[in-house]
Amino acid sequence: MQIEHAQIPMGPESDGMVLELLQRTLDASAPNFPHLIRELACRVDRDLGRLPWTEGILAWLKTQSEAVYRVLAECLWDISAKDPSPEAARGATLILLALAEHTSGFDDKLLFDLAFHADSTEVTRMVGAYLLATVRTRSKALADLGNVAALSELVREQKDVEQGMRWWRALLDDLARNADTAHGEIVFSLIEERPELHFALRNGLLDVFDSLPSAEQQRLVRFMLNSVEAQPELVQLFVLDLLQYSPFLETARQVFGYQLDRQLRHLEQTAPSARIRNYVATLLTQWEISATSTMKAAARGDPELVRVVESQSIAEAVRAAKEWFNAQDVTRMSTILHNPKWGPEDYAFKALQLLGRERSLPVDLEFLCARLGCFLQAAHLPEGLDGLFIQRPGLPGPIILYNRAQSESRKRFTIAHELGHAIMPGHTRYLLHASRVSEPAEPRRLDDTEKTVAATGLLPCVGSEWEADADRFAAFLLMPRRWFAEAVWRTPMTLEGLKALAAEFGVSVTAAAFQAIRLTREAVAVVYSEQGVVRFQRMTDDFRDRVGPSASVLDWVGAGTVAATLLQANQEGLTQEAVVPATAWLDRPQVAEIHEQSLVTHTDHVLSLLTPVGEE
Ligand SMILES: [Zn+2]
């Protein structure tokens, strides 16, 4: 039985009328159901009361079973995909999209299929635009499709390669912005299953990469490179191709530092495919060849660093490093995995575990450097520069250089500090970093020169915040909490006691004093001053209890102090002690005098140990 046109009036109807009419005439089991739906679709397309009709259908559906829902969806799909009348196809697509938008349980696969099976390119465009607009909320559905074929077919469809690429981009964009790796697998399967599309897929990916803010760029790079060793050959080739694009490579260096080169070196030695091994070898050689100019570019903005990088001493160290790395087995180099919950002390603890059971004091830094795949050497460095951390492209580990003119304990502190840069997350962001260590390992303020360099935006060195972290790492690597705390508890907090601790652990008295005061239970304060200005200080709770709860150490070294007297003689290693007025050191003390022991650590630098009078 044919439904008469008259049954669907042409004029604008009220919502109530539409619904009533639909409920009376629509019967999914009637043979003329498809015709009626087609009539409806044409009507919706002509925009005659589109809204009431579409809403009428949605309302009608609510009173129907799931089976009817499916019948309607399939019926609409057929009209959208195949009906020769453009208006019927368009109208059916509009209703279908309304169903997708407003009903739960809609099968997204229908839309995917429609996007590349529709005869009408207009329908493809409508559905494609809708899916692109909702790709974010639909990411789960994308992943659930499980069947990569649907997506890859879309990409492969010759008539719609452009549309397919829009998909590919939307997918990657979503991945980078939302860190949702649910459809990460689709990305890799697509690369693997459609090698003939590599060129288009690669360009699509790099377009997306170029358009992203830097944090998302890093996420995309991390995603593509993270598991490259475990990927099939075709994916590895694809990823290596990406590294030929310099902005992508630069971001990869920022994210992974020397671990990028190490990972590739590893791949070069272990990949089953000769083609991959060859490709990686070529890539690494390319990086090595251009390394010198890359390093110079990294030093730009800091004239001192430029001079250092170009010096004979560094050139020799680099040559030695290359030889050393060539003789190393990359597969045996240890890497400490990152954990967002860890701080410097945790990383130091992890590094110490590499020493195994046979731990002895002082901590064997050379052994640790070798285990972690870091090249270590003394070098002629400008005064005031303690160490250099160099990540030279092509080398599977960092070059750690320390100033050979410094004292033994400061050299050790510097090496430990640089190891901190090699291990802790974020510290490998710059190819070149100049270290100025601070043995008290207390938080530092930006000094003026660092502020200037930071302001120019060209900062080859890591910020002070990272320097303080590296100092703390060094303190806990050289003076591991457990062993050091034990030693502190059996040693009196005097200069003599601290000197003994310093010798046992291979650190300076200053480093030992500040680490000890974090662990001791005695009433004591430690002050480190430079040219009479207090740079770092720390006191225990017991000390505060004894000298007054609101007492604090002054910002300068007072005239009545032993430190002030020593500063005049300024002779390294000079020690003296006395009872001095408390106000010479403290603001608002509640005691009249305190006991002071001071030591000139080196020219202009004094370490002072303050204890309440009467304290042994
Ligand atoms: Zn540093």
TrEMBL record:
TM spans (from-to): none
Pfam families: Peptidase_M78 (PF06114)
Domain (IrrE N-terminal-like) ranges: 377-514
InterPro entries in the cross-refs: IrrE_HExxH (IPR010359), Rad_response_metalloprotease (IPR052345)
Gene3D superfamilies in alphabetical order: 1.10.10.2910
Protein name: IrrE N-terminal-like domain-containing protein
